[in-house]
Design brief:
Layout lengths: L17 H25 L10 E2 L11 E2 H18 L2 H18 L8 E4 L5 E6 L1 H17 L4 H16 L21 E2 L1 H15 L5 H12 L12 E2 L16 H18 L2 H18 E2 L7 E2 L2 E2 L5 E3 L2 E2 H17 L7 H16 L10 E2 L10 E2 L2 H27 L1
Antiparallel strand pairs: 1-13, 2-3, 3-4, 5-6, 7-8, 9-10, 11-12
Helix pairs in contact: 1-11, 1-12, 2-3, 2-4, 2-12, 3-4, 4-5, 4-6, 6-7, 6-8, 8-9, 8-10, 10-11, 10-12
Length: 411
């Protein structure tokens, strides 16, 4: 049976705000006591795959296709949970889930991970997508940390396929999809690079020497694309200029915080002041333009706005809130950050998560709501477990670091 995670000891010792600690404890305890036990049973098929959506009664939706990004995210979720709790139950879910994923979604003819197949293995979308490769590598990095056998070979094959099929040497980085006979897949997206950085950092932390230069290559490519005001666009031309028209004007606050957290992690690993400063500028921009705190509205980050701050999609998703929480927790752990006193904002984000997204404190959530809180989502998507688990992992790691510091002072 799953076991409990370590008790939270406060993020900044005696300076820690009680309200923030209470909020973070609530989020962590909910994840380990309610969320993971439920999804480790209700979210898993008899074949070891993961259901990709549940309905609002907690029942699995019919599986039309299995997707690498979702299956890999679930493998990561249970591998990380196993490391935090020592649970063999979660370890088994992760290992069996990867075995099922590899049996259906690895492209045996060309290498790399397919976008989607039917449960019987017939291709639904056979494209090789950089975004999907990211999550396969992330899952493998965490399986490696668990000590699961054969992960090194899978990592090597996955990295080789990424390089052989998606490398874009002319302008740097990788194609989002394998180029076709008609030309390069456009527009280019920043999103896969964010998750490539996440995967490469995870590989580095798992002891793979290849991770460090790959992480550096992503950071070197993308830091120059971040604008002076801290904005990062979503879509680009082949040579990394902003895409034309509406696509080039989209700004997503959630991605600003996701990049900010990753760059803080990178900055801590490299002792890079430049990466740290840019991380804070990204978060500052994302908060200034993306957080909707007006009376009568859900206090949360909106989906997207334009460069002036005018909303393009003013609905609210669960995952951007977890990304902002991760950033604030990491800054609090490090004793830095630039968004004023972030403690009230951090507590407010967690409270909003439970008040407006999590359904009655149970294991299900409302993934998308209107600006005022009306439900817009049709299902409970399993892929959101990844965002929640990374957030809970940051909280748990920060608590452990704080406890270690307290023990050191006591001695």
């Amino acid at each position: 049976m799953p076991v409990s995670a370590p008790t939270h000891a406060g993020l900044t010792g005696t300076r820690s705000s009680g309200a923030v600690d209470t909020a973070l404890d609530r989020l962590r305890d909910w994840a380990f006591a309610v969320l993971l036990p439920f999804w480790s049973e209700a979210g898993v098929t008899d074949a070891g795959h993961f259901f990709e959506d549940l309905d609002f009664a907690g029942r699995p939706c019919p599986i039309e296709a299995l997707h690498t990004r979702v299956q890999a995210r679930q493998v990561y979720t249970f591998a990380h949970a196993a490391l935090l709790t020592g649970s063999d139950h979660y370890r088994h879910r992760a290992a069996r889930g990867f075995e099922a994923m590899a049996g259906l979604l690895w492209d045996k003819d060309h290498g790399g991970w397919l976008r989607g197949v039917t449960p019987s293995g017939s291709p639904v979308d056979p494209r090789c997508d950089a975004y999907d490769q990211c999550f396969a590598l992330l899952a493998l990095a965490w399986l490696s940390r668990l000590g699961e056998p054969n992960t090194e070979g899978w990592i090597e094959r996955s990295l080789a396929a990424l390089d052989q099929r998606l490398a874009a040497p002319r302008h740097g980085g990788y194609w989002e999809f394998v180029p076709s006979a008609t030309g390069a897949p456009l527009p280019r997206r920043q999103n896969p690079y964010m998750h490539l950085l996440e995967a490469f950092l995870a590989l580095e932390n798992s002891g793979f020497a290849e991770g460090a230069p790959l992480s550096d290559s992503v950071v070197d490519l993308f830091l120059p694309l971040i604008e002076r005001d801290g904005a990062i666009g979503e879509y680009f031309t082949e040579n990394w200029m902003p895409a034309a028209g509406e696509a080039g004007r989209i700004r997503e606050p959630g991605h600003h915080f996701e990049w900010a957290w990753l760059l803080i992690v990178y900055a801590d690993m490299r002792q890079s002041r430049r990466a740290r400063d840019i991380a804070h500028s990204l978060a500052t921009y994302g908060w200034r333009h993306g957080f909707d705190g007006e009376a009568g509205r859900v206090p949360a980050l909106i989906e997207a706005h334009d460069p002036t701050g005018a909303p393009l999609r003013d609905s609210k998703l669960l995952w951007p809130q977890t990304e902002a929480i991760k950033y604030f927790v990491r800054c609090r752990q490090n004793g830095d950050g630039v968004i004023g006193d972030s403690a009230p904002e951090l507590a407010r984000l967690v409270e909003s998560l439970f008040d407006h997204f999590v359904i009655a404190g149970g294991p299900l959530w409302r993934n998308q709501i209107s600006r005022g809180g009306t439900l817009l989502a049709q299902t409970v998507p399993a892929r959101l477990l990844y965002h929640i688990m990374t957030c809970v992992g940051v909280i748990t790691d920060a608590a452990a670091a704080s406890h270690a510091r307290s023990e050191g002072f006591a001695r």
